[in-house]
Amino acid sequence: MKIMRLITVFTTSLLFLIACVEDPHRDVIAITNVTVINADRDNLEKQTVVFAEDQIISVEPTDKEISDVSRVIDGTGKYLIPGLWDMHVHLTYDDAFTEDMPSLFLAYGVTSVRDTGGLIHKIKPVVERMRAVDANSPRVYFSGPLLDGELVVYDGGLVPEIGSKNSDIEMAEKTVSMLNREGVDFIKIYEMVSPEVFTALSEAASKYNLPIAAHVPLSMTASIAGPEVDSMEHLRNVELDCAFNSAELHEERLGVLNSHEEVAGLTLRSSLHTMQRLPAIKNYDEEKCNRTMDNLKSTIQVPTLRLNSFSMYPGYEREDWQSVLDNVPEGAKEKWILATNDWFEQKKDQDWYGSEFAKWSLELTGRMNKRGVPIGAGTDTPIGYALPGYSLHTELEFLVEAGLSPIEALYAATIRPAEFFSLQDKMGTIEPNKVADMVLLDANPTEDIRNTRQINLVISKGKVLFPKDLIDKD
To answer: What is the location of CATH 2.30.40.10 in the chain?
Structure first.
């Protein structure tokens, strides 16, 4: 084993030297004397990390001599983590945010994002701009529209249009084929699909080797739908499967779905959530929920706790909320300020801290983690007053409050997203030959997850960027 390690080190060093000889103008950067933190192993202290362009060249103890380096960054007393992901964003949900989102993400150390719903004609130009060679932008992976059923929740009525209709098997198959031609990285199945359409979408995605993100459809249960997809979002509809009377609740739900009068998808979905969510939570059955969680051990859960818990822990109450408002794009800032003022006025007369779903989300996430269900970090930004980038750090804090350790929360935002796309051999950890996405922190996030906010600089695709430069509007 020692011989193999020596061969690996020698080979890596040789390739590095060859690359430098071939391109003497290549910008080779070293971060010295830094503590390297990967979420799947012990911390490495006093390391020198060398990278060039979009590749990590070496990770070696600082006492080893380095040469042919064009720039040195002193990492003494600092901590280097892999670039963070936000697994649940909507780049085109609010036009006021779309242009500023890439720089905001990077300013907060988010170097990769998974867009989980946008119409193709709107999202593709955004993705193309973000993927341009000279763009300062996170890596972006997109799904296209929310794939809904005969009724579409996000139909452009009371909410933005980011969903599409899939009323039968043939339409579902054609939709996935079209999305594959458009170059999507995965698909997103939504709540109003029938079981037959769900199966058709799932099988079509498998045909094209596309991962699947999903809400649990209202016509199905988490135990049935969950194992067929690669990630589930918001813990939505899991509460029903954890109730002792889940069969009765599900029959009630199917009755409404099969007999409703002409109604908007948003209205029908919301009425079912209102009618059944709290009764299901109150009828929690531990043994039944354990069986449900065991069925989800191969499905990443993206709980978006900062969204689910907003009624109990609103962002408006954070001490740094004014700095959040300062970074909200002008097209949305007035709306956010008014919402903040309205909330503080209403708070005088209302109890905002009795949200059963908020408590349930935190408790269930902790139970899932202990049970071995994989957890991923996502925010649903900009929905629910979530500032891009900033909100990911809030999500990490909620994951820790739910029961994850700081290193487990980091795993949820670094390695787990890479696993969703089967990219863990290219990204998610700081190792030779992996992409050069990293965040240099001034404090140790394994001691306090809030230290992920203490960003010194960000490395995205090998570029060294400073937060102030990314968000300074002057």
So the answer is: 2-82+433-471
- Residues contacting 159, CB < 8 A, separation 6+: 153, 266
Structure-token match 């090998």, residue found? 462
Q: Residue 29 and residue 45: Cα distance in Å, rounded?
A: 19
In this predicted structure, what is the pLDDT of residue 15? Answer: 47
Question: Which of 58-67, 183-192, 362-371, 410-419 is least confident?
Answer: 58-67
- For residue 433, the model assigns a pLDDT of 98
Confidence of residue 67 (pLDDT cuts 50, 70, 90): confident
Q: Residue 2: pLDDT above 70?
A: no
Answer whether residue 333 shows pLDDT above 50.
Answer: yes
3-state SS assignment for residue 438: strand
Burial of residue 372 (CB within 10 Å: 0-12, 13-18, 19+) is exposed
Residues 6 or more apart whose Cβ sits within 8 Å of residue 207: 176
Say what the pLDDT of residue 23 is.
54
**Position with higher pLDDT, 203 vs 263:** 203
Residue of 160, 86, 150, 149 whose CA lies nearest to 119: 160
Q: Per CATH, which fold does 84-420 belong to?
A: TIM Barrel (3.20.20)
**Rounded Cα–Cα distance for residues 110 and 81 (Å):** 11
Query: What is the average pLDDT value for the chain, to the nearest integer?
Result: 92
SS3 326: helix
- Whole-number Cα distances in Å, 365 to 160, 231, 403, 451: 29, 14, 8, 22
Q: Is the pLDDT of residue 351 over 70?
A: no
- pTM, entire model: 0.93
* pLDDT in the model for residue 208: 98
- Pairwise CA distance, residues 64 & 83, whole Å: 25
Strands 28-36 and 44-52: antiparallel
Coil, strand or helix at 199: helix
Which CATH code fits 2-82+433-471?
Answer: 2.30.40.10
CATH 3.20.20.140-classified regions of the chain: 84-420
Give the CB-side neighbour count of residue 40, counting CA atoms within 13 A.
14
